[in-house]
Amino acid sequence: MKQIKQRLHRYFPETTVWGYEGSYPGPIIEAERNRPIAVKWINSLPNKHLLPVDHTVHGCMNTPEVRTVVHLHGGNVPAVCDGHPEAWFTRKYRETGPAFSTGVYYYPNNQEAAMLWYHDHALGITRLNVYAGLAGLYYIRDKHERSLNLPRGKHEIPLVIQDRSFNKDGSLFYPSQPEPPVPGVDPSIVPEFFGNTILVNGKVWPYLNVEPRKYRLRILNGSNSRFYRLRFSTGQSFYQIGTDVGLLERSVEVTTITLAPAERADVIVDFSGYEGEKILLLNDAPTPFPDGNPPDPDTTGQIMQFRVGYPYFVHDNSRIPHHLCRIEWLSESSAVKVRDQKLVESVDECGSL
């Protein structure tokens, strides 16, 4: 984990961000099912945080300002390697949290092919560390997935969708106070934040040149608070073939798909018949979801653009299978214990929501 400068748009100055292996988003880790790997996570970040830290928040009182720990979201991993929020560590492991035991994480990869993602998980500052750039994708592959003849190689595209806001100098903006401000606490945590700019794979409103053929899009909602309801400007349908932890049993034809923060979708879209067109991937999810304000059609209502070329030597033998896999369904009657958990939103002793 390093602090780096990266150009997020060709008209922007370089923006200071945090990244795994010096990249935002972090590199895609590709693993094979049932072939374990070990990853040593190293914190080389500065001691001062890039964003405003509220030291009255649980986990941030009497602890170092910059702490990290990595969670593999969706991974079936040993508890000690799951990124417990209090297993944090500072630069070069000089200080560690009460749940810390190792900086080397073992990932068994003993699950179906899927797109997972890894991200920071430190108590009290997860939202800030992820906003700063600490997130990346993790693919698990297997023989069955390869046998389906899905679009692959340069026709399999990861899309990490995030919202951000920027200061005039191109630096990341994150509010230091809610509205109205909390008296006597500065910086103060905000209950949620929606950026006014959309990034995909670390680029502001990018475009992708595509061929008139099928593509597999591996989509992650990597935003802190924002939902996305995605559709194409052409109104064309596409096929969802997978979700958070792998393939669906059957492909589903859809025209829109809704993703909550951290949620993933695996889809196939066919651009044949759209030669020469510029197709927008659009968002119409309100913020907050589902009863908030609609997105601005000129900014947060747009995700990216696909520029479809002409069919010179295009050969597409990939498929959209109807049957994808067999899922062993859990029976509700097999549960041995029922737990009721309440989710509440309240004000703390400082007056922060």
Can you tell me about this structure?
This protein is mainly β and 353 residues long. The chain folds into two domains: 2-147, Immunoglobulin-like (Sandwich); 153-308, Cupredoxins -  blue copper proteins (Immunoglobulin-like), CATH 2.60.40.420. It is 3% helix and 33% strand. It has two helices and 21 strands. It has helices at 126-132, 143-147, and strands spanning 2-6, 15-19, 26-32, 37-40, 70-73, 104-107, 114-120, 135-141, 156-166, 172-173, 197-200, 203-204, 207-210, 214-221, 228-232, 238-243, 246-254, 257-259, 264-270, 278-283, 302-308. Strands 9, 10, 11, 12, 14, 16, 17 and 19 form an eight-stranded mixed sheet that branches. Strands 13-21-20-15-18 form a five-stranded mixed sheet, with no helix packed on it. A four-stranded mixed sheet has the order 3-8-7-5. The longest helix is centred in the middle third of the chain and has 7 residues, at 126-132. The mean pLDDT is 96.
Notable traits:
single chain; 353 residues; mainly beta; Immunoglobulin-like; 2 domains; 8-stranded mixed β-sheet; 5-stranded mixed β-sheet; 2 helices; 3% helix; 33% strand; globular; Cupredoxin; Cu-oxidase_fam
